[in-house]
Amino acid sequence: MTKDLYARHRSVLPDWLALYYEDPLEITHGEGRHVWDSDGNKYLDFFGGILTTMTAHALPEVTKAVSEQAGRIIHSSTLYLNRPMVELAERIAHVSGIPDARVFFTTSGTEANDTALLLATAHRRSNTVLAMRNSYHGRSFSSVGITGNRSWSPTSLSPLQTLYVHGGVRTRGPYAHLDDRDFIDACVADLKDLLGHTRPPAALIAEPVQGVGGFTSPPDGLYAAFREVLHERGILWIADEVQTGWGRTGEHFWGWQAHGRSGPPDIVTFAKGIGNGMSVGGVIARAEIMNCLDANSISTFGGTQVTMAAGLANLNHLLEHDLQGNARRVGGLLIERLRAVAAQVPHVREVRGRGLMIGVELTRPGTDEAAPDAASAVLEEARAGGLLVGKGGGHGTSVLRVAPPLSLTVAEAEEGAAILERALRTL
Fold it and tell me: Which helix H or strand E contains 267, and what residues bound it?
């Protein structure tokens, strides 16, 4: 049955639509931190639909909210008042950390970043954007244009002029040998020099932890230092929190808070985890920025009632059960467990991350050269052992991405680490 579905997939869907595994997997249902495939195999899910099933599969509060809302009305568009949308916007504005915040809902992180770019360029009257090397911001025309990861950038054409800044990757590149303070100083000096060679940019967009790029991040405080330079020049700071938001990093509710010394971002984008699988994305911005557009706009599907009901139930569950704290505690144990394994596996260059956002970088033993075949082999072995993980990486890197639902238990963390250890030891 799966082979037949794969053949049908290939005959009707694009060749560039990536699939994991030599024999692709059809996931039919899930519960908690586990999913099942069409052959009845059970897996511990350490990727959560690309960091999207944030709390748990089939979370009762979310399924109930979706069912009840669907029984009333599913959709009406933003042309009409929408109580679930207003209620979720109020909660998000409250937890955003942005003063006088306004919230606009979209259907995805790509669309959220697209909207943030529209707001920033309109507000600043500039189409120049600063982005980070190794970044990923989506698959639309404008978000591909600012993505600094060649593997996910199919065209150099763009409506924007994009300039790339150092700093998103701590352990590679020209400043990797420096200590954290000198690393930040070097990146700030590079930013200042870059700004001297270009017309005033609209904004810097940055992921606090680069997701697709392999869960890389700068030292805490880098973006705070950047913000001081940007603020002097009126340049906006956009924090892409599509993967880092809602407590996934454990230490903070938002990834930007590790860089919050100079105040919050001007714009925050979010998606993925808030809907726990429903299509919810959005933008948070100060009122003067959000309200800068001088033409009408709507969203047909952004903020639709059934997705808003899911998001509200999911956010309430996350806050009431302190899943950020659980990500910090269980994620810390999982990182240390994987680092102990890595010390005995020559292919592992580094285990990095925070909370339940962990990257295991693989290289050819004794070198810094990427080992994509090794990453694919571990992905297959982990699946055979009953564990699903992701892959990522940017220029010259290959990384396993570990990002379970934030309700992961200690026992499940130990089980997943043991499966991943066996898979790594087969290299």
Answer: strand 267-270
Where do we find the tokens 């679930």? 84
Identify the bridge partners of residue 142 per DSSP, sorted by sequence position. none
Indicate the pairing of strand 161-165 with strand 128-132. Answer: parallel
- Look at residue 70 in the predicted model and tell me its pLDDT: 98
Going 337 to 34 to 269 to 247, the CA torsion angle's sign is negative
**C-alpha–C-alpha distance, residues 212 and 204, integer Å:** 18
Give the per-residue SS3 of 168-189: CCCCCCCCCCCCHHHHHHHHHH
Only one residue has tokens 């993505």, namely: 147
Distance CA 371, CA 251 (A): 31
Phi, psi values for residue 186, rounded to 5°: -65, -40
pLDDT tens-place string over residues 66-115: 999 999 999 999 999 999 999 999 999 999 999 999 999 999 999 999 99
Tokens encoding 64: 């109930």
Q: Which residues, 6 or more positions from 391, have their beta carbon under 8 angstroms from its beta carbon?
A: 20, 375, 376, 379, 398, 399, 400, 401
